[in-house]
Amino acid sequence: MTVVGLHHVQVACPAGSEDALRGFYGGLLGLPERRSRRSSLRAAASGSGSGRRSLHLGVEPGFVPARKAHPALLVDDVDALAAAVEAAGLPVRWDDQVPGVRRFHTDDPVGNRIEPQQG
């Protein structure tokens, strides 16, 4: 038995944050929304290799933002996204700890850490 891919990642959020998260994940990051019965929101991202992957956003009672755990999102222009994130007033924390990987960290509107990196 071997793991052959990653189907989805779920990120927690507080109740009432859905519109702000739609603006961030859908508007700023450009992930199309797909409704789900199990998650408040589900943003889909197509990719090469094992096909469609998705990011689920689920309401969690007693929500606490994930400061260390995070999804890493492959993007086609990490510099353009960093400029858009900064223009939206969100933090851009560049990380050069992995040689040859261009990436930064930011926070979604509820404080969860997100890592866009050049794909």
Automatic annotation (TrEMBL):
Coiled coil: none annotated. It comes from the Bacteria. Residues 5-119 form the VOC domain. Residues 36-55 are annotated as: Disordered. Pfam families: Glyoxalase_6. InterPro entries: Glyas_Bleomycin-R_OHBP_Dase, Glyoxalase_6, VOC_core. This is Glyoxalase. The lineage of its organism: Bacteria, Bacillati, Actinomycetota, Actinomycetes, Kineosporiales.
